[in-house]
């Protein structure tokens, strides 16, 4: 889940990308806006391993306009259990 404080703008302001540490290739990518400010949840099924998350301004015209705004990134996981 990615959560930011509410500010009234529906444009995407952040690009959130998940990378595999083995290949450094993007595994998942999305954008996040300032309104609505509800947390977005993205269920992903990924193999065990190490991953990197990059959060950066979305769009070249934004620069670092909102870079000092606090945000939360929550990651939950469950391990697959063998059946039987």
Query: How many E strands?
Result: 5
Mean pLDDT: 73
What would you call the structural class? mainly beta
Shape: elongated
Gap between N and C termini? 32 Å
| Adjacency order of strands in the biggest sheet | 3-2-4
**What is the count of DSSP helices, taking H or I runs of 4+ residues?**
0
- In angstroms, what is the radius of gyration? 15 Å
What is the domain total for the residues? 1
Beta-strand percentage range: 25-35%
**Main β-sheet, in a few words?**
3 strands, antiparallel
Please mark out the parts with pLDDT under 50 across 5 or more consecutive residues, or reply none.
Answer: none
Note the run of SSEs as H and E: EEEEE
Helical percent range?
under 10%
Summarize it.
With 84 residues, the chain is an all-beta fold.
Question: How do the strands and helices of this protein lay out in sequence?
Answer:
Elements: E1 2-3, E2 12-20, E3 26-33, E4 51-57, E5 72-73
Antiparallel strand pairs: 1-5, 2-3, 2-4
Tell me what you see in this structure.
This protein is mainly β. The chain has one domain (2-73). It has strands at 2-3, 12-20, 26-33, 51-57, 72-73. A hairpin with a 5-residue loop joins strand 2 (12-20) and strand 3. The model has no long low-confidence stretch (mean pLDDT 73).
